[in-house]
Amino acid sequence: MIKKFIRKILGVKDQRDPTEPVVLGAAEHGIDPKLLSSNAIRVTSTLQDAGFKAFVVGGAVRDLLLGVKPKDFDIATNATPEEVKKLFRRAFIIGRRFQIVHVMFGQDLLEVTTFRGAGEANAPKDEHGRVLRDNSFGPQHEDAMRRDFTINAMYYNPATQEVLDYHGGIADIRDKTLRIIGQPEARYREDPVRMLRVVRFAAKLQFTIEPTTRAPIAVMAPLIDNVPAARVFDEMLKLLMSGHALACLQQLRKEGLHHGLLPLLDVVLEQPIGMKFVTLALESTDNRVKAGKGVSPGFLFASLLWHQVVEKWTAYKAAGESPIPALHLAADDVLDSQTEQLALQRRIASDMRDIWSMQPRFERRNGKTPYKLLEHPRFRAGYDFLLLRCESGEIEMELGDWWTAFYEGDPNEREQLVATANAAPSGAKRKRAPRRAPRKTGAGAANESTTSEE
Ligand code: ATP
Ligand code: MG
Fold it and tell me: Which residues belong to any copy of the tRNA nucleotidyltransferase/poly(A) polymerase RNA and SrmB- binding domain (predicted)?
């Protein structure tokens, strides 16, 4: 006890037996029980009443320790998926890479996982060492060992308010350190997505990546190419929609990880011309996420890849194509090259195409044309995109201002605007009017998902 206390005071890294957790009481960890969801408590107590072990685990414990309300709660238990399913009215066994149980209460979904065994070493792997399937169950300490980072490998029991820490996660939370559990090279080989998770968590939490966790990434990054594209896309989307996308990309650059981690990031980060535009787009996305508003992946990817489209668009125009067909050709080229690598879902790709192809139409301000564009189901997204182009200096602010006035104007004002646009010499540079707060209308879904609530 005294030895442990002295080690703690001196900050000496614990060389404990990793099968025995350090147990911290409420006074030591300081978790505010009010941050827990009642459904998380319902699941753990139902399992415990049936004689099983049950804990809140992973990201939720990390967030609780940081004093942040977790956005979702994962539960770990020694009950098998079948045993879990029997205890809840609405529970479904989902068999993806790992079998887990989805327990539903109304709209609320909790993921319940059975403790995994240390079977990763013997699990079936691809030729690069990536684990393909692994459903072996095991004791809790093996489950802790299988998790990615020390700060993600803690267990909280709401009934006793105790935190079980197997890998020094508490100390790392306090030091703001992101440390992988086990031997970094081996862990990245087994699952290369962990390299993307390092970056995401470091940026999101503003933690420092511990040197041995960081070192192999630059060399091992190409292993990400062997991961199924849909899984990389999911992780990429989490990164971009974390509310810290800009910080994530800056972190990648700072760590020298922007080469080869993902082809999309190379495109985005390597070309300074588009940087202003991408920065503004990510800033606006981050602000929306932080304000609890939805974000549309289509808008986001349309922004990230826009300067590539512009480059090809210019080339097609220079080769004699007229602007609109040239833009379609450019969009096809960019989408073709990214769809394969990124597993862009068809719906997202079609949103991107809509946003891009609307852009030259904003330049036509005569007759009925602007009225028709206003009716476009994705007008709001296209218009927001136009404003980003103006703000980044790619095109004159005058065009964005005109559309803002047209969009917000009454029928008389609109008529006048069309008349003046036709009369005014094109390309006249005016001073930028302050951007008004976006109006809520049914005109389209702007930079927001269909499920979002404003
Ligand atoms: P977020 O706040 O983004 O949800 P999270 O840590 O909860 O962060 P999840 O993807 O929800 O992340 O995963 C839940 C937990 O499962 C993690 O905290 C970690 O313990 C474990 N985990 C997830 N992905 C991996 C992985 N690739 N390798 C090892 N453990 C993982
Ligand atoms: Mg989570």
Answer: 207-266
Spatial CA neighbour of 407 closest among 341, 362, 343, 454: 362
* Distance between CA atoms of residues 150 and 62, nearest Å: 10
Tell me, yes or no, if 74 is annotated catalytic. Answer: yes
Which CATH code of 1.20.58.220, 3.40.50.2300, 3.30.460.10, 3.40.120.10 fits the domain covering 14-175? Answer: 3.30.460.10
Q: Give yes or no for residue 147 CB within 6 A of ligand 1.
A: yes
How far, in Å, CA of 240 to CA of 268, rounded? 12
Tell how strand 162-165 and strand 22-24 pair up. Answer: antiparallel
CA distance 64 to 199: 21
Neighbouring residues of the ion ligand 2, judged by CB less than 5 Å = 59
Ligand 1: residue of 66, 152, 164 to mutate (most ligand atoms within 8 A of CB) is 152
Cβ-based neighbours of 279, under 8 Å, separated by 6 or more: 246
Place 236 in a pLDDT band, splitting at 50, 70 and 90. confident
Q: Which atom of ligand 1 is nearest to the CA of 200?
A: 3
Under CATH, to which class is 271-453 assigned? Answer: mainly alpha
Strands 91-95 and 154-157: unpaired
Residue 8 has pLDDT above 80, yes or no: no
Which pTM was predicted? 0.79
